[in-house]
Amino acid sequence: MSKETTLSDLVSEIESGMTIGIGGWGSRRKPMAVVRALCNSDVRDLTLVSYGGPDVGLLVKAGIVKKVICGFVTLDSIALDPLWRQARQQGAVELMEIDEGMFFLGLQAAAWRMPFLPTRAGLGSSVLENTPAFKTVANPYNDGPFAIPGDVGAEFVAVPAINLDVAVVHVNIADENGNGMILGPDPFFDEQFLGAAQRRLVTAEKIVPAGTLADHGPLERATIHRLLTDKVAATPNGAHFTSNPPDYNRDEVFQKMYTTAAKEEASWNLFVQQFLTGDETSYQQAVSEWRKAQ
Amino acid sequence: MSDLSIADYCVIACSDSWRDCGEVMISPFGSVPGLGARIAKSTHSPDIVLTDGEAALSFGIKPINARSDELVREAYVPYKSIFSVVWSGRRQIMMMASQVDQFGNQNISAIGPREKPKAQLVGVRGAPGNSLNHPTSYWVPDHNSRSFVAAVDVVCGVGNDRARSAGVGATRFHDLRVVVSNLGVFDFSGPDGSMKVLSLHPGVTIDQVRDATAFPLAGIDGEIAETRAPSEDEYALMETLDPKGLRHKELPQQ
Questions:
Q1: Which ipTM was obtained for this model?
Q2: Domain presence at residue B1
Q3: Domain containing residue B144
C-alpha cells in the first residue's frame, strides 16, 4: 500500500498539544519543509524533542511551542541560534534539558516499549535536579554471580521513555512504501525517533517506485524501513538551509543571513516577509531568486 | 622560538595532558586543544585516535584548518557509535567551560536563572555523561572571576564534590584531569579534589591568578613552576599543523 502523500496532508497529522520529535542533528538533515509548514499552521502548544538546530529556533519564534526537550541547540558552523537564545532569555519557553546520551536512551526505551533504560549519564549534574521527576534506580546485582565489584551499591539514572505523538525525519530518497535511504555520513537517531512515535512521518528529496530503492544507493543505507513509517512526502531541497549531503551541503550564506536577520525584530520581519509567509513552493522560489541576486 | 606566545604554552599543556594515554579517542574542543592533540599524536602518544568531526575516524595527522575533503577516513563512527565509545571509557575529552568551579563542575548551558537565563548558551550537550565515563579536562581561554566562579549556574560536566555525593555509580569512572587557561595549568589534587595550581605561564603572577579566580586555589604558597615551553620540534609541528595561527585568535586579544 502506498504511503505517499502531500506535504500538507503529512503536516495535518500534527495537532495542537502534541509531543513531536524532529530528526537530524544541529543544522544537519532537518525536515525543514515540515518546520516551515508548522510555522504557518494553526497548531499550538507543541512539545519539541530535538537534537536542536534551526528547527527549534524557528518553531519557538513562531510562538507555537510550549516546551522543548533537548541537550543543545546549535547551528554547527554558528554556535548559537539567536531565536532560541532570545526566547529563553525572555522566559518565553520551557526547557527540559537532558544529556545527549540520556536523550538517545529515552527514545530507545520508547522504541523498545520499556519504561526506562539505566545509565550513569546525568548523575551529579543539574539535569537531574532541574527535572525532579527523573528518578534513579538501584543496581539490582549487588551480590550473586552477576555482581560487578565496582558497581556494588550504585544508583543509576533511570532515563524515562520519551514517547512521541509524532516523529518527522528527512531522508535523501524514499520509496512509495515508506522505506527511506540516508546517503549522508550519519543516520543520527532518526530510527529511534520513528520508533518512539505513534505517527511516523518521512519527507524525502525524491520518492521512487516501490522495490527500486536499492537502485539508488547501498542497501545498508536504507535504514528507515517501512515498519517504522506511516506517511511519506517528497520535499525537494526540503532540508534547506541545513545540510543534506550528497544532495546539498548546508547553505552557509543563507544560514548567516538567518542569524543576522534574527538579531533585530525589524530585520526578522523582513526575513519572514521574504521567505516564510507562503507555502513550501514559494519558499523554494524565494530562495532561488535570492540566490540569483547574490 | 624567541617570540613564543601564551597560546603556544597552552597548546603544549594540552598535549602533555594526553601523555601516554594509549589508543583512545581524543575529543578536543577549540583550536588550542585541537592542536595540542595533534602535537601529542605526532610526538609522545602516536596511538591517539581523532575523528573527522562528522562520522569517521580520521587517519594520520592533518592541520587543524584542514578541509573535510583533505582528510583520510579509516573507520565509520556515527554518533550512535560515539556513545558506545564514550560509555566504554576509550576516550578522553577536553571541553571548553563558560564557568568552572573549585571542584571542577563545568557549565556550558546557561548563565543566570534557569527559567529566564541572562545568557542562553549551547546546552549541557554530552558533558554530564562524558565527565562520568572517561577522563575529562577543560580549556578556558579567558581566565577571569566570571569564568572561574564560586558556583556554576548549571552543572554540566560533574565536579569531584558532586560526583562523590552521587555515589559509586558516578565516581567509578569519573576522572577530572586538568584545566588549561590563558594564565596557567591546574589539576584537582588539592584538598577534597579541589583545584590546585600546577604551573603558571611565563609572565603570569600568582596575584593575577588569585584576582581572576573567585574561589581559593590550592598550591599557591611557595615556588610555582612555569609551564614548560615547546621544544623546537614541537614548535615546528605547531607551525605546520596550524599554519594560519588559529591558536592565537582563541585567546583574549591584548
A1: 0.96
A2: no
A3: 6-248
